[in-house]
Amino acid sequence: MAKDLSNLSILYVEDESVTRMAVTRVLQKRVGQIYPAKDGKEGLSMFLEHRPDMVLTDLQMPVMDGWEMISEIRKVEPGVPIIVISAYEYDNSDHSVTDSIVKPVIKDMLFEKIEYCSK
Q1: I need a surface site. Which of 8, 41, 69, 76 has the fewest CB within 10 A?
Q2: How far is CA 94 from CA 33, 67, 73, in A?
Q3: What is the pTM of this model?
């Protein structure tokens, strides 16, 4: 049985607008609150304003990339789960990221990771 995610709030940061809209629609069906952002700078601002329970983010974005945003988020909220959604595999030897998904996003995999990382 799927975990109830209706009380979960998620910041979703993705610069590709079609992907951002599609994944946001999928998330809205199961998650309580979604805060979509188009780049790391907007994502960081939304994180500071709303303090979501979890962050889903791309890495390669204009204005502020995902790594820079993650670094800033970790300064204010070291324990928040962060799931990277990227077209590229990467080495997370510093453990700043909780989990990762390689694009394209598959709905079942997305919710499996969210359920696993949610408290």
Answers
A1: 76
A2: 29, 11, 15
A3: 0.92
